[in-house]
Each structure stands twice: as structure tokens, then as C-alpha cells.
């Protein structure tokens, strides 16, 4: 472990130990100092813990959530933090994927950071906006180029006004010229602000000319140590840690990497396999998840209770004729429950929930370019995803209807027992299901109509959710709108289909 000795460090970290949830120690008792305006490159094998360290120092909750163990102390700006108890907030982090707020304009991304910063002076704002001469403040970030988005992300982090800047692989995916321009920009920022920057990078060549120091995360000794800031030296050190890596830090962090864990793990599979893979994924979420089953079961129970309770207690002839008209009332309530009430309520419940899921699922796939990736990889997205969704909407409508019908009938029976204690369940069954037990062609037709309206409303509502979900999405907010739209469209379609079929039915 090496501790750089600086006259006036901005940040002093002592005894940093990080243990990952699985029990792997990433660093042990590491210490380092960073001085004003310094640029430090943090290098190390893939998976060694570089991002974890800068996330931790930037105060990101997930760096310490879920079983991570961290110890060490940090001194920065006159504050002393015990990292085992306190969260560090000394770092402003530029995320690898920029993590811009895509529902805000470029200007708003900057303003919201400034508005939540401890203090931002005019000079800082000038510096931040000077990075964006070619970006209009009212430009949506989704229409900025990749380079512009990165500069918006850097400017936003500057305005957060934290003592140290952290960059997580800022030059991955940049060409040499852009990568050098980025390094120059970071140098300029550090000089003008007098703040240090720590850059996590795999491709260090273009960043090295601007770096003051290089720190290596040594996976063998689990320490952070200084390395000569030259490409040869860095390459040598990384190869020593991971002899199988052919290029700088592209190999995994394990001491003896091999392809063994992958052996036999990539068997080829037919299209049928992939269709069923997606089909089962949607089957679970749209049809068979315990939450869904519980949801429609409870829906059915409420219908079953309400129908019998109010059907008898608010009979048009009052309590006087309740017993006299008992049998015929039960017949009517049974017919309405099976052919109208349960299909309608269950249809609405299923479509509302599933349309939200479909719009969210497809919307996220659109936003994260998954359909483009599928097209590029010649994966038939329409067959796998859309086909699976529609088939599952049909399944869900029938299966869940059956669940809901059962719980509705059971609850009706229990409610009837409450109202007519001592009567036999047989009496209930004979009358409640009399129309269906007697059989006949009109009964079959009634049940066919139930099936028609159930499946039709589910498929048409599902199609609406698919169309809405597949529309272009620029932001998370667009997905939220799509979810709301698809619920409204789905429920309206269900009401409409049930009303129209009801007219034909009776
Ligand atoms: N949520 C998590 N739960 C368990 N282990 C995790 C979690 N997140 C990361 N890790 C593990 O912690 C280690 C360090 O991850 P980290 O992302 O910090 O590495 P890195 O050096 O930045 O890697 P790379 O250079 O490939 O981005 C890895 O071995 C990773 O598998």
C-alpha cells in the first residue's frame, strides 16, 4: 500500500477496507491522499473494485447497501468521516452512461444540479456552461449527440460543487481525438476550479498526458499503490496481475482466469426454445404470478359478496317477499354473475394491470434500444415478444376468469349462508346455477358470448397496449404516460366490448 505524501491534500483516505456481499475483500487497509487540482488515474483489472471505490466516495447508497462492509476514515474540507458509519458526500460523479435526466432539457439538467448544490458561484456556472457552446439550454438531452450528452453530464457534476470530481470510464467508446479533448477539458476544469479529479479508466493512453499520478488497484495484495504514469509501466503491472490479459486491463480480476466457467454454457437452441423463453417470462408476469392470482381472486370474492348481499337486502319488494322470491332471485343473480358481472369486473382488473405491465415493458425496451438490438441481431422481436404477449393475454383472460368465477361463486354461497342460516348448500346450487344445470342451446350460446367478450376485450386491449408501448420513447416520463394511456385505453375497450356483446347476448 502506498500513500502519496502531499503538502495539502484535499482528501485523505486512511485504512479503507471494502468487502463485497459475497465476502470477497476488494481492498484492505488502503490509504491515499489527493491534492488540489490533481488528476489521478485509477486503474486495475476488470471487476477489481474501481467503480465501487468512487461510488462509495460519491455517497451512492447502493455502494454500501445489500451486504457491503466498509471501514476506513476520510478527511476532506475540515470534515472527518468514519466510513463504517457515515456516508461520504465528497465526490461529484460523472457516470459512465451519463445518467442524464432525460425528461429535462440540457439547461434544466444543469439548473437542477445547481439548485441542489451547497453553493454555486457565477464563476462555476460560467465554467460549466463554457463546456456547452454548441448546446442550446432548451434542447432535450435525448436529442443531444453522445459527446454533447457527456459534456452536459460533466457540467452538471461541476455544478453539484463537490470537493472532488470522479469520472467512471469517461473515455470508453470515445475516439482518440475526443478522448484527448476530454482529458484536456478535465485538466482545464481542475486547474480553474482547483479541485482534484479521479478518473477510472481502462484505456489510459489518451488520458496519461494530463494525469499527475496513477493509482493501481492491486488485486493480488488488495491494496492501492502508485504506479509510474507511463503506458508501459501500467501495462506491465496489469499483466503481472493478470498474465492472460492480452491488452491493458481487459481481462478479469481472477488470478487464474480461464474459459472453464463458460464451457458447455452456450449450447445452441432452436427458435422454439427462444419463443418459449419469452412466452414463459410473460406467462409468469401476465397470468400466473401469485400476486395476479390473488388480485383476481379477491376481485371475484368482492363481486360474489356484493351481488348476494345487496341482491337480497335491497330486493325491490323489501324483506317481506324475500323468502317467497328467494329461488327466482338466486337464479337471476347466478345468471348475472356468470354472464355479466364477473366477466366485466375481471376483464377490467386483468386489462388494467396487464396493460400497465405491457406498456412499461415495451416502453423500456424501446427506450433502451432493445428492439434495435434485436433487429440488428436478426432476432424476431415481433414473434417472440409481441406474439408471447398476445397469447398470454388470451390465456390470462380465460384462466383468470375461471379463478375469479370460482371465488365469486364460493363467496356468494358463504354470503347466502349468512343471510339464510341453516339452509343447505344444495338449495343454493340448484337455484344459483339452475340456468346452466338445465342446459340447452341458449346456455351454450351464453357461455360462448362470455368467452367471446372476454377474449376479444383482452386481445384488443393488449394490442392497444402494444401499440402504445412500441411508440418512440425519449424519456422515462414518456413511458409513464404510455402506462397511463394504455390503462385508460384498455379499460375503455373492455367496457365497450362488454357493452356491445351484452347487447347481442340478451
Ligand atoms: N451488487 C453487487 N453485489 C455483489 N457483488 C457486486 C455487486 N456489485 C459489484 N459487485 C462485485 O464487486 C466487484 C467490483 O465491482 P466494480 O464494478 O467496482 O469493479 P470495476 O473494477 O469497476 O470493474 P470494471 O472495470 O469491469 O468496470 C466485482 O467483482 C463485482 O462482481
Automatic annotation (TrEMBL):
GO molecular function, one term: ATP binding
Signal sequence bounds: none
Keywords: ATP-binding, Membrane, Nucleotide-binding, Transmembrane, Transmembrane helix, Transport
Record flagged with keyword Transport: yes
Record Gene3D superfamilies: P-loop containing nucleotide triphosphate hydrolases (3.40.50.300)
Transmembrane segments: 282-310, 330-352, 381-403, 447-470, 482-504
Domain of life of the native organism: Bacteria
Domain ABC transporter: 11-244
Protein family membership: Belongs to the ABC transporter superfamily.
The protein's name: ATP-binding cassette domain-containing protein
Lineage: Bacteria, Pseudomonadati, Pseudomonadota, Alphaproteobacteria, Rhodospirillales
